[in-house]
Amino acid sequence: MAEFELIEILKRRCKPSRADVRLGIGDDAAVVAVAAEHELVICTDTLVAGVHFPLDTDPADIGWKALAVNLSDLAAMGAQPVWALLALTLPSADADFITRFADGFADLAAQYQIDLIGGDTTSGPLTITVTAHGLVPTGQALRRDAARVGDVVFVTGTLGDAAAGLRCLQSNDADRPPIDVACAMLISRLNRPQPRVAAGLALRGLANACIDVSDGLLADLGHIAEASGAGIEIGEDCLPGSTALFERFDADACHALQMTGGDDYELAFTIAESNIEAMQAAMTRAACRVSRIGRVIAEAGVHVLDRNGERKQVHGKGWEHFA
Ligand code: ADP
Ligand code: MG
């Protein structure tokens, strides 16, 4: 199968839906119309086989996740996702792989009316790079560097599920729990993360700082703290967890997964006390659970309090590629 046939499969499965795309797949570059009084928010994220997903992952899940991780970055900025580019490196021109991959990608793209407007297709070790574009009204993007001392820290959804799902999958792990309903739920959080797009939009004008939890809660809160020139204190027992997580892992393992597990794609944000009520109403409308987990403090660093309010040491803050 030739390169153009692969592109044809992608084009056929990822149907265009947007009037603001003047020229999509097929020319040397795409042409889009940017809405007046908006700013363009752009991000890119790469998934490498064997690093970001196990080699035997369903291609449909890979397609979904490649887009999801980028939509999560847009959500963290409070942006409305609009267009995506896809740079694909494939070991072989495998029609079955690309068809399934495109279906997973298209499933999520359709949920948010995002158009695939172009990309690049090359041969080599399986690597997927998506570049996503979003829009925010001018000046309204949510940033990491805007937390203020005294802000309350919240997180959406539940933490630790994806890392727990990975544990369930790792067959050489001696204490691996058998695959049951709880594990299946945890694995689906790993393979099909739901980017918090609606929550990100709801936080515009209300939150001060926001980040998506991709590397682990402590690591990502550390980015907010550092960028904002402040610190964060969180309560270990305030961290939200799913029933499946609590069912499959003991309390210590749950805490570790919630604080340092990657790939959750929840949003962590800081907000002034006076905006909390409005935020909670907006989150209810967005059908998104939020939990209060801590505070922004003047002292640098991210600090964890145990149930007695004592600071505790946590080892391994999260995922780092070159560590
Ligand atoms: P060029 O040689 O001019 O760079 P290509 O042959 O690489 O063009 O691509 C042809 C068209 O197909 C372009 O519009 C490009 O954006 C699109 N395209 C190529 N690969 C992909 C892909 N993986 N996903 C989406 N569109 C793609
Ligand atoms: Mg060209």
Give an overview in words.
The chain starts with a helix and ends in an 11-residue tail after the last strand. The longest helix is centred in the N-terminal third of the chain and has 18 residues, at about 60-75. Helices cover about 35% and strands about 25% of the residues. Helix 4 (about 160-170) crosses helix 5 (about 180-190). The strands form 3 sheets. The chain has a 7-stranded mixed β-sheet. Strands 3-6-4-5 form a 4-stranded mixed β-sheet, covered by helices on one side. Strands 1-2 form a two-stranded antiparallel sheet. The protein contains 10 helices and 13 strands. The protein is an alpha+beta fold and about 325 residues long. The chain is globular. It folds into 2 domains: about 5-135, 60s Ribosomal Protein L30, Chain: A (2-Layer Sandwich); about 150-310, Phosphoribosyl-aminoimidazole Synthetase, Chain A, domain 2, CATH 3.90.650.10. It has helices at about 5-15, 60-75, 95-110, 160-170, 180-190, 195-205, 215-230, 245-250, 250-260, 275-285, and strands at about 20-25, 30, 40-50, 80-90, 115-125, 125-135, 150-155, 205-215, 230-235, 265-270, 290-295, 300-305, 310. The site of adenosine-5'-diphosphate has 13 residues, from helix 1, strand 4 and strand 5.
